[in-house]
Amino acid sequence: MNGAESLVETLAGHGVEICFANPGTSEMHFLAALENPRIKPVLCLFEGVATGAADGWYRMRDAPASTLLHLGPGLANGLANIHNARRASSGMVNIVGDHAMAHLKYDAPLASDIEGLARPLSHWVRRSVSASAVAPDAAEAIAKAAEHPGKIATLILPGDASWGDAGPPGGAPRIGVLPRVEAGRRAPDAGRVEQVARVLRSGEPAMIIVANKATRGRALELVGRIAAASGARLGSQFFTARLERGAGRTPVERIPYAVPQAMAFLQGIRHLITVETGEPVAFFRYPDRPSLLKDQDAAVHTLVAPDEDSEMAFEMLLDALGASAASALVQPRIETPMPSGALNPISIAHALAVAIPENAIVVDESLTTGRETMGHTMGARPHDLINNMGGSIGYATPVATGAALACPDRRTLCMVGDGSAMYTIQSLWTQAREALPVTTIIFANNSYAILKAEYANMGAGAAPGPRAASMIDIDNPTIDWLAMARSLGVPGMRVETAEDFTQAVIASTREEGPFLIEAKLYP
């Protein structure tokens, strides 16, 4: 057994089911080892698609995927979506091939400081120094990635460590053993729970802000019971890694993105109780606006730290409140009328409220177009919502690809602006190759519309001048999204009205494979 084979055996043996790969010369032995049927290899035509897909897989499976990246430049191409994954607390095992160690001294063209590139966005980085070290190193990487919250682990695999003999004397297979870790998540501090109980018993206006694992499953139902019993509002940051929402689930209010609206939303709240997140902070600092969104006299109380168990904390808090028998808040189904007329943020939100299918996965990178969506889809059919936690655009189509591979029995709706879509449009090719049930909705306004608003918000001027505007508009030439999708193996259609958009989304959910909808927007 060589080092690459021991690596794949270790990955498979410890629950890594899939590898999103963009390989090069140094990784040929790893490719050969992927003949192992226990790991599914998925080819991605850009490394940012591979790392984004691994993020999407984790968000739906709560288990890390592997990526395979080619040397430092391949890792660099994947870093933007590694950043997004890190912000979403997604676990990921990045395997980065490198030159054989004896070759490094010659400074070949692809040589680089891979550790230096990986370290700022990785929680764990290691270079395997021999074939026999690969399996135990891989086991440590998997253990780190699988922690709560999820971590980014990067294992550098030199060519000679990959092709060298990894077997111990006697030729027995070498498979890494996971390091011993404490079972379960860390229990919350009982004193903090009692402090929060006192705050909630005081009757002063309070909001519980939930994130990460607290936005789904039993944890969400429990915090809905706390909100019902105490009268506290239940909210989330503007972006969430994954939120279970819709009819029959506990409703969660979304703190607005724009600073004035967010401050108005939080006005009068005396206590912010945070769960696996921090206090609300503006996405950017503006010349005349604050960074913190809460009232100046509001207190922030940590109920659950990011590495603690939300479900356990909510059970403790219900006991402290004497409300263990309370019923949870439940969102009723809202039957939204079919919208008509022009496509705009409101009609798009109403169309999605009508069209989102039962148990769908909605990946949202619609930026300006989709800011109205959350409020108007609260009572839609039950679905999961995934947001971009890190703000680096080009995340949606890769994350949707990984989510669809993780949950092939569910339809994934991917909403993305045309500017963002161009970053990682190669995702469509992988979706076609894997016949994935993904509907990609591209909102085509032929510009980076969000930057037009930010230009004024930042105080750069009332409106961009001709040269500044040329750096924001992407209509010269206009992108033909249907031709683009068709060239990558994905059928599609263009719509310009709310009626056609609604019908197109509904029809796309009946497709077996991927489908693209270009929603044409006009000023």
UniProtKB/TrEMBL annotation:
Keywords: Thiamine pyrophosphate. CDD domains: TPP_BFDC (cd02002), TPP_PYR_POX_like (cd07035). Signal peptide: none annotated. The keyword NAD does not apply. GO terms for biological process: small molecule metabolic process. The keyword DNA-binding does not apply. Residues 381-518 form the Thiamine pyrophosphate enzyme TPP-binding domain. Residues 1-105 form the Thiamine pyrophosphate enzyme N-terminal TPP-binding domain. GO terms for molecular function: acetolactate synthase activity; flavin adenine dinucleotide binding; thiamine pyrophosphate binding. SUPFAM superfamilies: Thiamin diphosphate-binding fold (THDP-binding). Belongs to the TPP enzyme family. This is Acetolactate synthase large subunit. It comes from Caenibius tardaugens NBRC 16725.
